[in-house]
Amino acid sequence: LIAGAMAFAPVTAMAADLTIGFSQIGSESGWRAAETTVTKQEAEKRGIDLKFADAQQKQENQIKALRSFIAQGVDAILLAPVVATGWDDVLEEAKDAEIPVVLLDRTVDAPEDLYLTAVTSDLVHEGRVAGQWLVDDAAGEKCDIVELQGTTGSSPAIDRKTGFEEAIAGHDNLEIVRSQTGDFTRSQGKVVMESFLKAVGGENICALYAHNDDMAVGAIQAIKEAGLKPGEDIKIVSIDSVPDIHLAMANGEANATIELTPNMAGPALDALETYFADGTVPPKWIQTESKLYTLEDDNMAVYEMKKDLGY
Ligand code: GZL
């Protein structure tokens, strides 16, 4: 018997009349914008009344939004947590109010009984796939790497770094010579890449590992402005599989990306509907699939398929 309030769902709320609060991080990247678009579509499909709150990437705004949802007495909360720590108090308040919380695309360092489930990719695996791609591409040749990290303290920034370093460990030809956050944005990706080029010298940089495509797209601009060829002089591997990285690969200006589905809400809302319908408690982690795309794929076809999905 699972102890705790979470095990006995209030089976009164039916799908048709569900009100769900969604605390979204912001719109820092094309992927994030697509996740917002898809989440609203998935709620609409299910006749769910979605209360949307954009936090402009500030944790305090997310905590305020959660407290507002609790005060409104929503049936459930979706939370994409901008950073991994600092959630215990507000998640306790949601639990006390018997409002289940589902995490989207990022995780939190909090006791597992404070959220119903987390719908995310395997972020460490994504980093490993990126690292392994570079191990294979370098083929034993010396390759100094610069790294654009995601938002400091976020689970993707932590886990994607861990996975990448695991994959390149033991390959002495590969070394990360500079690593700094670009906060998952194009503008910061460009600015930080400019500083890497100045500090290291473009001719000494063999590859860029960016924790998301938007920072890679910004970095591509900086590499071009430095008179170098992105995708050739400096190899580029990143994560998300947004349309613009496929356009870059089609032009030979980027080399690999790992796909992150923007549809975390579908599995999240399915789990919540079942939970409310018959009390079934979902697994703590609902994992979404990752897929590697490279220069060799038909990137224009992927771009055409993705370009109208809300990125
Ligand atoms: C990863 C997700 C990241 C995306 C970025 O699961 O949280 O946040 O990779 C976005 O594009 O900013």
Automatic annotation (TrEMBL):
Q: Which NCBIfam families match?
A: YtfQ_transport
Domain Periplasmic binding protein per the UniProt entry, residue ranges: 20-263
- Please report which protein family the annotation says this sequence is part of: Belongs to the bacterial solute-binding protein 2 family.
Where, per UniProt, does this protein localize?
A: Cell envelope
- Signal peptide boundaries: 1-15
Residue ranges of the TM segments: none
- The principal localisation class reads other
**Domain of life here?**
Bacteria
UniProt name for this protein: ABC transporter substrate-binding protein
